[in-house]
Write a structure and sequence with these properties.
Helices cover 74% and strands 0% of the residues. The protein is mostly helical. The longest helix is centred in the last third of the chain and has 29 residues.
Length: 445
C-alpha cells in the first residue's frame, strides 16, 4: 500500500531539518529518497575504487534509516520479505561453485570446441546451446559469471575473436532466464511468493521463451556473421571429468529435477534450493571437509546483502511515489488492445531495468501489479521486460554486470557503448517478438 506522504511529513527528520522547514517543503522526503537511491544505483554500476557493490547498497540503505526516510520496522519487514530469494541465491551459488571448482564448465567449453570441428558457426551454436542449458538449470548468473571465463579460455587458443561467444553468454543468460522459474532469481522477485505452478508456467512462457531464444540467436548470429565465417583449428579432445566432477554434474541435474518437482507442487523454492545444494555438496565431497569449505568460502556472499539492501531501497521508493506511478501506468495499459498494452508494459519495464537495474525494477513492478490488481498476463509481460530488457545495456541486470567484471579480470574491456551497439539491434525486436508470442500463447490457453 502507498502511504500518504503528506500525512507523515511532520515525522520526517532529514539531516536535522526542523519541522517548520519540512512543512515548507512538503516533497523534501520524497526528493531525498530518490536522490539517495539514484546515487546508490549509479555507484553500484560504476564501482568507483573497485569497492564491492554490496558496500554501496548497504550504505544507501543505512542512509535511508539514519535520515528517517524509512521506518526501521518497515525496513526490517522488507528485508524479511526477501528470505525466499536469499535462500534461492545461496543454493544456486553453491551448486554453481561446486560445478566450477570440479571442472564442469571447463569440460563443457572444451567439449563444444571438440565438436565444432573447425567451424566457428558450429562452435557458436554449441556455446549458445550450452548457455541455454546452464541458464535454465543453474540460473543466468552462472552462465554470465562461470561459463563465460571457461568459454573465453577455450576460444583464446584458436586466436580468433572471442566477442561472438562472449556476447552469446551474456545475451542467452537473459534470453533463457524465464524458461523455468529457477532460471533467474528475478522471477521469484517479480511474482513475490506467488509463483505459478510449473505446468501453468510452461503453458504461459514456453512459446515466449522459445521466441526469445531463437530470436536472440538469429540476430546475434547475423551481427557476427563475418567473424563466424572464418575457420578455426580443431580443438584438442577435452580431458575426462574426474570422479568429483562427474558427481557434481550428476548432482546439479538431480537438484534441478528436485527443484522442478518443488515448483510443480508450488513448494518453497528457496528452501528447496538451499536444501538440494547442501545434499549435492555432501554427495560431491564425500568425507572431504576441505571440499565443502572451499565451495562455501568461494561463493559470492556479497550478493546477499546487496539484494537485501535493494529490498530496503525499493520499499523507500514505493513510499515516495514510485509505486503509484507504476500502478497508474499498468491500469492505463490495461485499457489498450492486448498487443499494444502488453508491449507497452514490457518495453517500459525493460527500459526502467536498464536505468536502475532489473532487480529493483522487478520489486517495484511486482508491488505495482499487486496494487493495480493486474492479471496474470500483465504479470507475464512485466517478467518479459525484467528478464529480456537487460540485453540492451550493461546496467540492465546483475548477471550482465557480473559478466562485465569477469571479463575485466581477463583483461578484456567491453565499453557500455559497445554493448549498447549490439543490444539495440537485438533486445527491442526480441522483446516485441516474445510479447507477440505471449499474446498467442495466452490466447491458445
Amino acid at each position: 500500500m502507498v502511504n500518504d506522504c503528506g500525512a507523515n511529513l511532520a515525522t520526517v527528520d532529514f539531516a536535522g531539518i526542523c519541522d517548520n522547514q519540512t512543512f515548507m517543503f512538503p516533497h523534501l522526503a520524497q526528493i531525498a529518497t530518490w536522490v539517495i537511491c539514484t546515487q546508490v544505483f549509479l555507484l553500484i554500476l560504476w564501482r568507483p575504487r573497485h569497492i564491492p557493490e554490496y558496500v554501496w547498497a548497504t550504505g544507501g540503505a543505512c542512509m535511508l534509516l539514519i535520515f528517517r526516510l524509512l521506518p526501521l520496522s518497515e525496513a526490517w519487514s522488507a528485508v524479511r520479505a526477501g528470505s525466499n530469494v536469499y535462500l534461492f541465491l545461496a543454493g544456486m551459488m553453491l551448486l554453481a561453485e561446486l560445478a566450477r571448482q570440479h571442472g564442469v564448465f571447463d569440460w563443457l567449453a572444451a567439449l563444444a570446441m571438440e565438436h565444432a570441428r573447425g567451424s566457428q558457426a558450429r562452435l557458436f551454436i554449441l556455446v549458445y546451446g550450452i548457455g541455454v542449458v546452464v541458464t535454465v538449470l543453474l540460473s543466468n548468473d552462472a552462465t554470465a559469471v562461470l561459463l563465460t571465463p571457461a568459454v573465453l579460455a577455450v576460444v583464446r587458443r584458436t586466436k580468433t575473436s572471442p566477442l561472438p561467444y562472449l556476447f552469446a553468454c551474456a545475451f542467452i543468460a537473459n534470453a533463457a532466464s524465464f524458461v523455468l522459474p529457477i532460471s533467474n532469481p528475478a522471477n521469484l522477485v517479480v511474482f513475490d511468493g506467488q509463483l505459478p505452478s510449473l505446468d501453468e508456467w510452461l503453458r504461459i512462457f514456453s512459446l515466449p521463451a522459445l521466441a526469445a531464444i531463437a530470436g536472440t540467436f538469429a540476430l546475434l548470429h547475423w551481427h557476427y556473421r563475418k567473424d563466424l565465417r572464418i575457420g578455426i583449428e580443431d580443438g584438442s579432445k577435452p580431458a575426462a571429468l574426474n570422479p568429483r566432477g562427474k558427481r557434481a554434474a550428476v548432482g546439479v541435474l538431480l537438484a534441478a529435477g528436485a527443484l522442478l518437482g518443488t515448483s510443480a507442487v508450488r513448494g518453497p523454492l528457496g528452501l528447496a534450493t538451499i536444501g538440494a545444494a547442501c545434499v549435492v555438496m555432501l554427495f560431491v565431497a564425500g568425507r572431504q571437509w576441505r571440499v565443502m569449505t572451499d565451495a562455501i568460502l568461494h561463493m559470492s556472499w556479497g550478493i546477499l546483502p546487496l539484494v537485501a539492501a535493494l529490498f530496503v531501497m525499493v520499499e523507500a521508493l514505493t513510499h515516495s511515489g514510485a509505486l503509484k506511478i507504476s500502478a497508474d501506468g499498468l491500469i492505463a495499459a490495461a485499457h489498450w488492445p492486448p498487443i499494444l498494452g502488453l508491449g507497452a508494459v514490457a518495453l517500459s519495464v525493460g527500459t526502467a531495468s536498464n536505468l536502475i537495474n532489473n532487480l529493483p525494477t522487478g520489486l517495484i513492478a511486482a508491488a505495482a501489479v499487486k496494487a493495480a490488481h493486474g492479471s496474470a498476463v500483465v504479470h507475464a509481460a512485466v517478467l518479459l521486460g525484467i528478464d529480456l530488457g537487460p540485453n540492451l545495456s550493461v546496467t540492465g541486470s546483475l548477471a550482465t554486470i557480473l559478466w562485465l567484471i569477469a571479463l575485466r579480470r581477463e583483461n578484456i574491456q567491453i565499453s557500455a557503448w559497445h554493448f549498447l551497439r549490439v543490444g539495440w539491434r537485438v533486445m527491442p525486436a526480441v522483446l516485441l517478438l516474445a510479447v507477440l508470442a505471449l499474446v498467442v500463447s495466452v490466447g491458445a490457453c
